[in-house]
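Page 37, top half.
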Amino acid sequence: MKPIQAGDHAEIIEGALGTKGPNVGKKVRVVILRGEHSEYGRIWKVEGEGLISEYGAVGTTVDCAQSWLRKIEPPGETSDKSVEKEVDAPLTQS
């Protein structure tokens, strides 16, 4: 899988408070690379619903370290290549 880039969908798997952060488990869209942090590396601006900033404010955008994000398939798309087929079969009597 390619590294995270702008436009990707991701799940927040960690935060400044580790795995106990208020945004852990939330689905977001990666917006733009904000820059590099000396400790956390690449920092991305992400958007989603009900995100809580480091200051406790509730909003739709926060900054996340790349290591805090797990890339996911966009809603409505799946990587499963299976095909559904309708099967005609005679009914059996018991």
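Page 37, bottom half:
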Amino acid sequence: MNVILNKGQKFSHAFELNYLAQEGNIYIMDNHLAAFWCWSRELDPIKSYTLMHIDRHNDLNDALVKEAFHLYKNEKFKSMPIEKAVALRVNDDQMLMWNNFIELYNVFNPYTLKNFEFVTPVKLPTKYRHLKNIPLKSWINKEFTVQELFDQQNRKAQPKVINLDIDVFFVERSGKHKKILTDNELKSFAEKIRPLIDRAALVTIALSPECCGGWENSISMYNSLNKYLKLSRNPLSI
């Protein structure tokens, strides 16, 4: 695994990036804001992709998006170091946040993410309300349609970007985080997502430690998934 950034197990909050690593077309980060940089670096802006967003949040905040575009529309994010990208500011605020990276990417690359699939437990903003959005357990139990099965085998089908947040496997109640899936349900999720990951153009995975009850929980959940999905050759250790 190519470790791009490792500051250790510090707080991520909304703005901090402490960890970023790459294994082939899979990027692992503690804060989802780095997905903007990964997509800018890896996706072909003149091609069309489907974004599959699997997360406890929809991450569709459009804060600072228009202002950022006017300030940085001539920047080459593809070749920009991650540290510089995270440090970019709009007025007195950091441009990249944990929940605005999708809308930021869309404003700089309006023709790239053409279709969206959401697996989240929350409502989508009004302009996205017409799109598919299904809770995690419902997605696990849902049968693929004939078209979806065909697309998984069709090399000419629109490629997917899979954007997974480990926090989707947890729920917070009374300040405590608990897993929402049994071991068998997690295995079922892995079996269902595996063919999509195998054919994905890019996979971005956020650990989101504060939303999982801490680093130990998020790393443990990643490693449980990794046993089934072989996302990285070795267990994750930060």
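Margin note: Residues 2-229 form one domain.
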